[in-house]
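Hello K.,

You asked for the raw outputs rather than the summary table, so here they are, unedited. I folded two proteins back to back in the same session to keep the settings identical. This is the first:
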Amino acid sequence: MKFETKLKIRLYTAITIFILGVVFIVIGFMKPVDTLSSFGVMLAIIGMARTRQYMRITKNEDALHERKIMETDERNIAIWTKSRSLAASVYVIVSAIVIITLYILDMKDIATVISYTIIVFTLINWICYYVIKRKY
């Protein structure tokens, strides 16, 4: 896949994230759910920042060239891979500690929901692993 195509896909993804954020904000204000509107604000900000970033990169040849070098350099790829792996491990460990704490505090419903997110996260991780393993 061409690098420019990847950037366009990322741009459309960022726009989608922004739109989802706005939808979450609207739903959060329609129904008094603080976490929904807070999550929506976060998504909208991230989507807006990413949209701006990718629009800037796709319109500037120098920025496009720098980004292409940055993303295709083997050292940077290794750093990204290790960083994502470490972040996932830390997320699972912190979540496990939170789950145990919530069970001790007799907040079983919240602990169960967090447990399910860990299960889904792990499942997605394994599916992605096998898809990428086939590709390479």
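The second followed immediately with the same parameters:
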Amino acid sequence: MSSSANLAPPQAGFGRAAWLYLVHVALLTASQAIFGLFFNFAVLAFGFSLDFLGLLTSVSFLASAAAGAPLLWMLAHIPLRTALLASSMLQLVGMLLFAAWPGRAALLLASVLLGVGAVLFELSAAPFMMRHSPAGAR
């Protein structure tokens, strides 16, 4: 018998928080995919250059890199659920800012918020799921 038969994820055992988290991830992934698809087109349609589009991407990654260590420290002091909600709020505000005020400064701020929100999600997601799923499901 191969060991791959034991790798199938269990269907039972997840608590309510774990299932809500998984639904959150599915919705977040879908919204980010749609946003990412249209983001590049929209920035160019607003009349900005490819250079500015590259700057927006770079600012998002720079914000992620700069925020990583402070957010990791912060995670030791706040509940993981709060961190996930804050991550969602940062990303939502970034997307809304992008949609409502497509000016240069607002787009740069939106990129910062999206980058910080993304790194906060990445740092808090795995520990949250580990706390809210049984050992056999990990």
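The mean pLDDT is 86.

Happy to rerun anything if the numbers look odd on your end.

Regards,
P.
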